[in-house]
Amino acid sequence: MGIVKAAMGAVGGTLADSWLDYIKAQDMTPTTILTKGEQVSNKRSSNKKGNADIISNGSRIEVGPNQMMFLTEGGKIVDYTAEQGYYEVFLSESPSLLNGDLKASVRETFERFKFGGQPGKSQQAFFVNLSEIRGIRFGTRNALQYFDNFYNAELFLRCHGTYSIKVTDPLKFFMENSSACSRGRVDFADIQEQFNAEFLTALQSAIGQMSVDGVRISNLTAKSMELTKYLSNVLDESWNQLRGIEICSVGIASISYDEDSKKLINMRNQGAMLSDATIREGYVQGSVARGMEAAGSNSAGAAQAFMGMGMGMQNAGGFMAGASAANLQQMQMQNAQRQQQAAAPQSAANGWQCACGATNTGKFCTECGKPKPAPTGTWKCSCGAENTGKFCTECGKPKPADGKWTCSCGATNTGKFCTECGKPRG
């Protein structure tokens, strides 16, 4: 039993009139995974004794977009195609096995399962939905454990969202879900409970791996693409290799923390903010301002309130003054550190590297004591000063031309020694 592509000329009622059987997929919704082929009703045909489980030789089958059709005989898969079009059935033909866009592994699945089933005369056509099945909702009933390196604590979260799947090996799905497929129709709702349970188990493993990789708990919502890859790795063996289904995408709609985790996160964030002396001083001054505002609105009288506030301020004044002084000192230290950091690149740029490899900023190497090399283009005046410009910075003498130098005795020379007094060039 095999199939070959039929001519594309006849469609609609013409097909029903011209062929013994005209078969197409039953109503296939966005969540349908598998459905049995049905014969198109033909009121004008004289053949009223057809058997729904017998496909006549020469019948025509329509395969729609993103569908895979396979023929069975006595429960044995005998042929399939994943290419859109019209096909004619020939019982004497060898299988055509038209993969379409499916992976080459589908042919291997056919070789493994084609001899399965019981012999008989039952012939059926099944259609598998190859489109992505989207919008599968999930939610964690119990809080998931997550160790966050940033908070250095074990946190607990719940997450809700959706995921999508796609059938990548329909033959494997059919053989591994034969009991469900025997009913002639499989919607994802029929198997969702089992898949969701396995998905949530894999989600715990994937989130645990993200924790090991150092992903902050607050970044999980923005890491949907990464989470999909983690889940694919976890579910690859159980879903893809065993059932012919792959997970396509995961979307996290919301993440919530238990009460203890919320308190710990808020405490850590407040502590991080108050470690800045500027923010801490603003908090102190804001507390004073709020106290004065509350005193002014006291129904017992502002004068009495301010008197009470003054007594309180006398008692707390030492603490407030000490806190502000400590904040001021830390702010000064922070400003000094910022200035040092800003000046560090400039110092490094003005530094020089000794022949021993050490980097220095002074006139002598801190490692070997060698003097800083003179920059290129310098000249030494008779007064002993080294210069780079046209005049000496110490005595104002002009730079000698053509490498000439002036001795302390007043003689102008070009060699290493003075021609008048014999002194070496300084």
Account of the protein in words:
- It is a single chain.
- The protein is α+β, with helices and mostly antiparallel strands.
- Helix content is 37%, strand content 24%.
- It has nine helices and 19 strands.
- The chain has helices spanning 13-18, 105-113, 170-176, 178-181, 188-212, 224-243, 259-274, 277-296, 302-350; strands at residues 2-5, 22-25, 32-39, 60-63, 67-73, 76-81, 85-90, 123-129, 133-139, 144-148, 153-167, 185-187, 245-257, 352-353, 359-360, 379-380, 386-387, 405-406, 412-413.
- The strands form five sheets. Strands 1, 2, 3, 4, 5, 6, 7, 8 and 12 form a nine-stranded mixed β-sheet that branches. Strands 9, 10, 11 and 13 form a four-stranded antiparallel β-sheet that branches. A two-stranded antiparallel ribbon has the order 14-15.
- Helix 2 (105-113) runs parallel beside helix 3, helix 5 (188-212) packs across helix 6 (224-243) and helix 8 (277-296) packs antiparallel against helix 9 (302-350).
- It starts with a strand and ends in a 13-residue tail after the last strand.
The counted number of beta strands is: 19
**Total number of helices:** 9
In which range does the helix fraction lie?
Answer: 25-40%
Helix-strand category: alpha+beta
Rounded to an integer in angstroms, the radius of gyration calculated over CA atoms is 43 Å
Strand content: 15-25%
Distance between the termini: 108 Å
Principal-axis shape equals: elongated
- Average pLDDT, rounded to a whole number, is 74
The biggest beta sheet is recorded as: 9 strands, mixed
Strand/helix succession: EHEEEEEEHEEEEHHEHHEHHHEEEEEE
Spans of at least 5 consecutive residues whose pLDDT stays below 50 are: 9-18, 43-50, 115-120
